[in-house]
Amino acid sequence: MAAQKINEALEHIAKAEKYLKTGFLKWKPDYDSAATEYGKAAVAFKNAKQFDQAREACLREAEAHENNKALFHAAKAYEQAGMMLKEMQRLPEAVQLIEKASMMYLENGTPDTAAIALERAGKLIENVSPEKAVQLYQQAASVFENEERLRQALEMLGKASRLLVRGRRLDEAALSLQKEKSIYKEIENYPTCYKKTIAQVLVHLHRNDYVAAERCVRESYSIPGFNGSEDCAALEQLLEGYDQQDQDQVSEVCNLPLFKYMDNDYAKLGLTLVVPGGGIKKKSPNAAQDKARGPAAVGSHAEEDEDEYSGGLC
């Protein structure tokens, strides 16, 4: 079966080369027909699992389309060549070709297809090079935003933000989350703005920047419905606990369902948040009771201690 497919592919390549030849009666190569034959050869090689030969056929197809000024079809062929490299686990090279394809889609006036290609490249490289994936997702977001496809832009920005948090690139994560929140506010998705504020505060506190975290909450009061929401109340408690170095209060807030059921990367920030200086110890039960009963109770404890030793040590 494989041998048959390889022979079929070689026949298509021979036909393509024939279309590219010129002679006395044929002054111009037939790029369109050659590209079609190279495309058929690539499919046959792929079916025979000869991915390197399939990649080469795709590149020749792309070149023929470029010579024919058919940029969209050339970009498709480059993208297919990239997918052949993916099959060979040559991911950085695959991403390079898909990026090239996305640039051609933009040049051709099909930005949506360009953004989808960039997202595909980001998914390919995410586990190998998160830094590159962040860049690709941000580029895709920018293309979608320019086309006013804000929901798709937000999806890409969300992926970038989570990767930045996972990679502990917290300064960049804070900026990315702010960008997300601004767009959610623009499209009037206010409940998601509240969630992004929680994520921002956690990022700022992990950056040891209490002032930025507090400012973030203060600025969110302008978002309709935030003031008085459970998100707002929880954040105020969190900031109070952090400011007073009360680890118990901070941990209690971060274990609320509101925090625990966020995206995994943000939930982890909550569960690993430690106040400066390691926090204060839990108050003893007696101290808590005394606080509730007032100064008189403290005095009675002192009197009991005095009575115990009033007769001396003997």
Automatic annotation (TrEMBL):
Q: Where is the composition biased (Acidic residues)?
A: 303-314
| Membrane topology term | Peripheral membrane protein
Give TM segment ranges: none
* A Pfam family reported for this protein in Swiss-Prot or TrEMBL: SNAP
One GO term (biological process): intracellular protein transport
- Xref: Gene3D superfamilies: Tetratricopeptide repeat domain (1.25.40.10)
Q: What is this protein called?
A: Gamma-soluble NSF attachment protein
